Fold this sequence. Notes:
The chain is α/β, with parallel strands linked by helices. The chain folds into two domains: about 25-60 and about 235-418, Endonuclease, Chain A, CATH 3.30.870; about 65-180 and about 200-235, 2-Layer Sandwich (Endonuclease, Chain A). Helices cover about 40% and strands about 20% of the residues. The chain has a 15-stranded mixed beta sheet with strand order 4-3-2-5-6-7-1-8-16-14-13-9-11-12-17, sandwiched between helices. Strands 10-15 form a two-stranded parallel ribbon.
Amino acid sequence: MLEIILIGLAVALTAGYFIVTRSQRVPKLKLEDKVLPDIREGLPMIAGLTSGIVFDGNEVEIYQDGAMLDRIMAEIREAKTSVHFTTFVWNKGELEKDFVDLLNQKVREGVKVRVLVDYVGAKRAGERELDTLRKGGVELAEYHPLTFFSLRRFNNRMHRKILVVDGVVGCTFGHGIADTWLGNAEDKDHWRDTGVRMRGPAVAALQNIFAKDWISSSGSVPLEAECFPPAQATGPVTAHVVNSQAGDVHSSVALLYMLAIASARKEIIIQNPYFTPDPVIPALLAKMSRRGVDVHLMVPGEFTDSPFVRRAGQRLYRQLLEAGVRLYEFKPTLMHQKIVIVDRVWSHIGSTNFDARSLALNAEIGVGLLDENVAAKFVEAFQGDLQRSRELTLDEWMRRSWFQRVLDWSAYQLHGQI
């Protein structure tokens, strides 16, 4: 009996080891001063190092809060040939019902609809609604469902948010299918978020990433020629798409973040809901601040869906504040957008959080945008968010009790899995 127990314990420990250690690495780079060119000049190099291609000629529109969901629904209504959609969170609610009704309607109109959801992220979905999708003809696949043979990869989740319609319109965003993303971030029950809609050559990169994920999750291949129409320039924005997932040698998104930050000459603005990265990233932000770059970091305040993550991130605040980084907590609700702006000319938006789970475990996606007008719109939204935020100061932070500091330190010790 004891032998059986010991064998079972060994199997459980081995499985647990594989689950929590299957990840990509956050690169620990040696970035010498003044080696990297500014973001305009260095973009082809940065995109190439992160497995991306720079596409000129894109049209980009930015949508805030519930307006992004309205745009997503509008694009789906206009679909003629195909709708491809990926998300992480999918919960019961009014948005779910409306979304399911719309997708089934498009199938009845002859549109090919494919939906990829994460097995864990969709655990709160309505089973009746998902069955309605399947019975209505929507092709629905789950990413990394739990089976005995999938234990090693179970900890690696699909965190990407993608919509591609007819191969010509592409969107990425922080939103999920849940009622918390409706509205205008007016209270704690309605979250703050941002998304972008694109037309132009860069949409093909979003379609390519969706197709790879779909093939690996469903075993079927989207063969319709309409999914990859000839690329046509539609606007003035230069764009590149970055993605990463566990199994890569290192995280392309983490590398992109670090290269873009190190390229800054004047200003770095970051808005992110979960800030618990490996020490190399806060050290880089501190270094850039000491070099004379204005560094602004906005994170959630008391309203968050993960108090433990917030607690762990607070372990890093002293280092940042001592270096002169300006640190803000958004007060009204959970701030969920993932935005980086460098020198007000390049901006990045996507699904990636500044935590080890996004940077080393999950499948993530982001879009880099080189355009002063686009960056200006992100900056304008950031300045609006500042009006609803509280700035932290070093003096205030140093007055925190030793007990609070111990809690922060203890939480951060698990940052590799949160």
